[in-house]
Amino acid sequence: MTTVFDPIDLSGTQLANRIAMAPMTRSRAGEGGTATDLTVEYYAQRASAGLIITEGIQPSVVGQGYPFTPGLHSAEQVASWRRVTDAVHAAGGRIFAQIMHAGRIGHPVLLPDGLTPVSASPVSAPGQVHTHVGPKDFVEPRELTGDEVRQTVADFVSAARNAVDAGFDGVELHGANGYLIHQFLAPNTNLRTDEWGGSDEARIRFAVEVVRAVAAEIGAARTGLRISPGNPYNGIDEPAPDAVYTALVREIEPLGLAYLHIMEAVEIRELTLTLRKQFSGTLVVNVLTDGPTGPDDHSVIDDGIADIISYGALFLANPDLPARLKAGGPFNTPDPSTFFGGDAKGYVDYPALGA
Fold first, then answer.
1. CB atoms within 10 A of CB 191
2. Among 42, 66, 179, 347, which one carries the catalytic annotation?
3. How many other CB atoms sit within 10 Å of the CB of residue 328?
4. pLDDT confidence of 346, banded at 50, 70, 90?
5. Per residue in 20-35, pLDDT tens?
6. Which of 180, 262, 288, 342 could form an S-S bond across to 103 if both were Cys, CB 3.0 to 4.6 Å?
7. Residue 204 — φ and ψ, nearest 5°?
8. Could you report the per-residue pLDDT of 232-244, keeping only the tens digit for each?
9. 179 is catalytic
């Protein structure tokens, strides 16, 4: 029986185990959206993961949705991430960059003068976003024109090329959690009637075009996609997600991607199983639980539902998580007060195994 501790060949990238570190927003980038010394230490500490997937990295200036998040659209940013990938590789790890365009999730105060968040349609998100000057109500995003949609696809491609140049083993395209790709997929955020909306087939087009273009640029073996069918986060409403996501996976299946990453956000294990049958490549699953994915949830590997399991908060509190899972614990309890900000020492200061 395959276990979570067995190695796996990820389309030519050899992983030491089937435990992935899930992507998590950190809001601790340095000047100009660069990775910092703390970024280097944080990821190198977690290099025993079979695969690290980074925090969301914006592919363009307008793609930023939160304060102090990093980018992959300038030479300085690329150089800063090279230090991170070198450190992870020196520690024996593998690391993919998650490319995330926030779309309507953001605020003009986070962007250079004259820019406003963009989306599939001019539909505001409910609630507020945290900014460097305090909470702000979400604004109505500007609808992307057809030419701008194509330019945004090109921005993803450029960021993916920059990621490879920075030494990443590959990229994960963020199509989940209510960000731009998800905004094109969801019926309540995509009200378009052109080629990019108006039907299930049209609403998947942006996601498919981004995946195809990135795979063509850096290779399908270096390209992954994350989805979260039915996830209501950031004001998304997908009351019947099955048709959209089965159509999406049907379109990307022939490409031979490195993996498909499903974040189980609602009671849709049946859809996960359906997509498992559709997708012949490596399936990564972030398991739906009452809280953070826990130490017993790797049963999805034992049961053959997933090939890799991704852990989020548990990896923050336990940088040596694979060793703790193998030993059966003990596990540090995640402390949310340490999750964000450049001076949060909790990134590096949790007790070591055996301490």
1. 13
2. 179
3. 8
4. very low
5. 999 999 899 999 999 9
6. 180
7. -85, -10
8. 999 999 999 999 9
9. yes
